[in-house]
Design goal:
Elements: H1 4-12, H2 17-29, H3 33-50, H4 54-63, H5 69-80, H6 86-95, H7 101-113, H8 117-125, H9 132-144, H10 148-157, H11 163-175, H12 179-188, H13 194-207, H14 210-219, H15 225-236, H16 243-252, H17 258-271, H18 273-282, H19 288-300, H20 304-313, H21 319-331, H22 335-344, H23 350-362, H24 366-374, H25 381-393, H26 397-409, H27 416-429, H28 432-446, H29 452-464, H30 468-477, H31 484-496, H32 500-513, H33 518-529
Helix pairs in contact: 1-3, 2-3, 3-4, 3-5, 4-5, 5-6, 5-7, 6-7, 7-8, 7-9, 8-9, 9-10, 9-11, 10-11, 11-12, 11-13, 12-13, 13-14, 13-15, 14-15, 15-16, 15-17, 16-17, 17-18, 17-19, 18-19, 19-20, 19-21, 20-21, 21-22, 21-23, 22-23, 23-24, 23-25, 24-25, 25-26, 25-27, 26-27, 27-28, 27-29, ...
Length: 546
């Protein structure tokens, strides 16, 4: 090597560990180590860190006869880049003579990544003059742990905020379901970038307010692929009800990516598997994500034959592919095939274990589900929810409620599906008081906004138990437009408890919304057959009296 610059270019060109060691040997033999040894050694440490070889980086660091502040920073950053070397990095951090803000900020991020929020706070508090990146790194750490109150307090302390700070605050409120607060944060932003608009659009989509999402989309001054995909995702939440609108957005998009195609495939599956298959074959290119989307679509339909056929055609597979195959057979109650697939998986993760637990639950094998759950290494909310469902399917409704309460006491935060399972168990078990407690605890205790499905479960629970006035009041006052699901539940309760007057009122309301719903006419006819004073023929297909 003729000059130092040539050494630098050679070091920076390295991408693989084998080349790194070869270059290290060449640099050591060059005459420049005697004059620029610290500078070149620092670059070599950086090179080893980029190749994820912390052992080589540390060996070089400890062999250096002299070091400068950049030497300490570089070895610290190399160790911090690997979560496996966090303890070693912290040891170096404690011995670093002149710790700068870059190194300290990297340590904050590494501590959060390792799951130690207390350590991240401690390191951040030790930074004398935090940079904007330091503040944002700590904000992101609080966001990661769902500590919204601490995040907002820290946000208020930032002397000079940039757009990233505002976006972290907006996204954190979205994650916590504080959609009104998230919109307020957006409105308070001093300036709006396309990333900020997209964050606000995503928050609106997750709130389920389609009209607000559409209005926000049209107000967006600059749209990119994420903007369009978010609007497409908003329509996709409504399944086949807004299929035409979703497809109109898709056709209007200036370009597509794998996320767009994935959303479209999901939308199509809500209406027609054949339509999804047509779009799948029309794709210009497919990757593992799109293959898994198709596989998941057939799996959710419970079509084990098509799922297995597509699984065999896949050019590559991952654990999601195997889990989708298992789930398809689980819906078919084929527990023996589920066990075979589970045993052949290359490895197991929490999702695949939850799928196997769900298979036992769907098959009604409560004892097998209990044993499998007891042997799971990690029991997340999905696993607990599957166990709740297993008890409910076995008719052990009090047991399902007990499992749910144990989950909460164990520190696992329930999700919307968990509450649906326990409310259905309460409904079939006639546990009105417990059902009300769970429903009211959603927002107050768990920070969850009750969805239409939860209101439907409560209407079903109250109707089955004969609390027909409460059920009717809930239907009229729920923050959603009731459809045949709620009206059918109420009508079923009226038939069961022989309340023909309320049943007739419910039938008129339900039929006016869906004149083609045969189940409403059938239930009304059964109610009227028990009460000769009511004349079923007094209603026509428009839900109006003749």
């Amino acid at each position: 090597m003729r000059c130092v610059d040539e050494c630098v270019r050679l070091i920076k060109s390295v991408r693989h560990i084998a080349d790194a060691r070869n270059v290290h040997s060449q640099v050591l033999q060059s005459r420049f180590m005697s004059t620029d040894g610290i500078f070149l050694s620092n670059l070599l440490i950086q090179m080893y860190g980029a190749c994820s070889s912390i052992r080589d980086a540390l060996a070089l660091f400890h062999s250096m006869p002299a070091r400068n502040p950049f030497s300490w920073r570089q070895i610290l950053l190399s160790c911090l880049a690997s979560s496996r070397d966090l303890s070693r990095a912290l040891s170096i951090l404690a011995r670093t003579p002149q710790l700068d803000v870059v190194s300290s900020t990297a340590a904050v991020a590494a501590a959060a990544r390792a799951g130690d929020l207390d350590l991240a706070e401690s390191i951040f508090d030790g930074i004398r003059f935090p940079s904007v990146i330091s503040w944002n790194t700590m904000l992101a750490a609080y966001d990661q742990f769902g500590r919204i109150r601490e995040l907002e307090d820290l946000f208020d302390r930032i002397p000079e905020r940039e757009i990233v700070s505002w976006i972290i605050l907006l996204s954190a409120n979205t994650q916590e379901g504080n959609f009104a607060r998230a919109r307020l944060v957006f409105d308070r932003m001093p300036q709006w970038s396309v990333v900020a608009w997209n964050a606000a659009l995503s928050s609106s989509m997750r709130s389920g307010d389609l009209n607000s999402t559409i209005a926000l989309f049209h107000a967006t001054p600059e749209r990119n692929l994420i903007t369009w995909s978010t609007l497409l995702g908003a329509y996709s939440q409504y399944g086949h009800h807004r299929l035409k609108d979703a497809m109109a957005v898709f056709r209007a998009m200036p370009l597509y990516d794998v996320v767009t195609w994935t959303i479209v495939l999901d939308v199509c599956f809500a209406s027609s598997a054949d339509e999804a298959n047509r779009y799948f074959h029309a794709m210009p290119a497919r990757n593992l994500v799109t293959w898994n989307t198709m596989l998941g679509g057939y799996s959710r339909l419970g079509d084990a034959r098509k799922t297995a056929r597509l699984f065999q055609l896949m050019p590559e597979r991952d654990i999601l592919s195997w889990t989708a195959l298992l789930t398809a057979h689980a819906y078919g109650r084929n527990i023996y095939e589920c066990r075979r697939i589970f045993s052949e998986m290359p490895y197991h993760d929490t999702a695949s274990e939850a799928a196997m637990l769900g298979a036992y639950a769907l098959a009604g094998n409560l004892e097998d589900a209990q044993r499998f759950f007891a042997g799971m290494g990690v029991r997340n909310v999905v696993a607990w929810t599957c166990l709740v469902g297993a008890y409910a399917r076995a008719g052990r409704f009090q047991g399902a409620l007990d499992v749910f309460r144990t989950m909460v006491l164990d520190g696992i935060r329930p999700n919307e599906i968990s509450l649906c399972c326990v409310l259905l168990g309460c409904s079939h078990g006639g546990m009105v008081s417990d059902g009300w407690d769970c429903f009211r605890s959603m927002a107050g205790d768990h920070g969850l906004r009750p969805l239409k499905e939860h209101y439907g479960c409560m209407v079903d629970l109250l109707s089955r138990a004969g609390h027909l006035r409460d059920a009717q009041d809930l239907v009229w006052n729920m923050p959603f437009i009731p459809d045949e699901v709620e009206w059918t539940s109420l009508l079923g309760g009226c038939k069961l408890h022989k309340d023909s007057t309320r049943g007739s009122e419910a039938a008129k309301s339900g039929v006016s919304l869906n004149p083609e719903c045969a189940s409403l006419y059938s239930l009304l006819a059964n109610i009227c057959s028990d009460d000769q004073e009511k004349d079923y023929s007094g209603y026509n297909k428009d839900g109006k009296g003749k």
